[in-house]
């Protein structure tokens, strides 16, 4: 995966450059070069289904997430789901690759794991045709970790019609608490 600041392999444009060039080319593309919208959508869903499998998302949730996947940041951070329900979500994340300059797990990585778990739980509570939007997240860091895997356990505090609140506790491989976070989501 590349961002807008990373050049592609030798001779390829960055996504931003390719997008600008694509705008200029779009007027002259032939119908054969453009896939039918249904074909493009089916290919994207197939890609996301593979992403869901690799992230450990239970199969009964694949139809719900097939159109969107789990998000590029979740993939980049290496988050893998173990349990998923509105009341309780559990996932792991490697420390390696998610550290700050001092060699310990970045505080923002704790928050990414917490918000991921709380948002997925709130989205499942919201149900079809509704959306969960994070409106507040906060974390307290208790202990540093420099290696291994972190486990985040998200537990519902309140599951209402318009608001959800979840507490997320991050622990190391020995079960020691690393951080505690709380997220509130608006349901609309």
Describe this structure in words.
- The protein is 31% helix and 28% strand.
- It has a six-stranded antiparallel beta sheet, covered by helices on one side.
- Strand 1 and strand 2 form a beta hairpin.
- With 188 residues, it is α+β, with helices and mostly antiparallel strands.
How helix-rich are the residues, as a percent range? 25-40%
What general form does the structure show? globular
What does the average pLDDT come to?
A: 83
Radius of gyration: 19 Å
Main structural class: alpha+beta
Strand and helix order: HHHHEEHEEEE
N-C termini distance: 32 Å
Oligomeric state: single chain
Biggest sheet layout: 6 strands, antiparallel
Biggest sheet, spatial arrangement of strands: 1-2-4-5-6-3
Number of strands: 6
Unreliably modeled segments? 1-35
Strand residues, percent: 25-35%
Q: How many H/I helices? A: 5
Descriptors for this entry?
single chain; 188 residues; alpha+beta; globular; disordered N terminus
């Amino acid at each position: 995966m590349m961002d807008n600041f990373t050049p592609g392999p030798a001779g390829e444009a960055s996504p931003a450059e390719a997008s600008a060039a694509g705008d200029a080319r779009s007027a002259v593309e032939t119908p054969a070069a453009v896939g039918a919208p249904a074909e493009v959508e089916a290919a994207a869903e197939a890609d996301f289904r593979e992403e869901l499998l690799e992230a450990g998302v239970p199969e009964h949730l694949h139809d719900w997430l097939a159109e969107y996947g789990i998000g590029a940041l979740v993939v980049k951070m290496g988050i893998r789901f173990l349990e998923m329900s509105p009341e309780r979500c559990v996932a792991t994340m490697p420390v390696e690759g998610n550290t700050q300059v001092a060699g310990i797990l970045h505080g923002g990585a704790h928050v990414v794991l917490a918000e991921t778990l709380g948002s997925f739980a709130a989205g499942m509570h919201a149900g079809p045709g509704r959306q969960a939007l994070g409106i507040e997240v906060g974390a307290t860091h208790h202990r540093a970790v420099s290696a291994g895997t972190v486990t985040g356990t998200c537990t519902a505090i309140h599951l209402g019609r318009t608001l959800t609140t979840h507490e997320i506790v991050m622990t190391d491989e020995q079960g020691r608490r690393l951080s505690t976070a709380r997220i509130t989501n608006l349901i609309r």
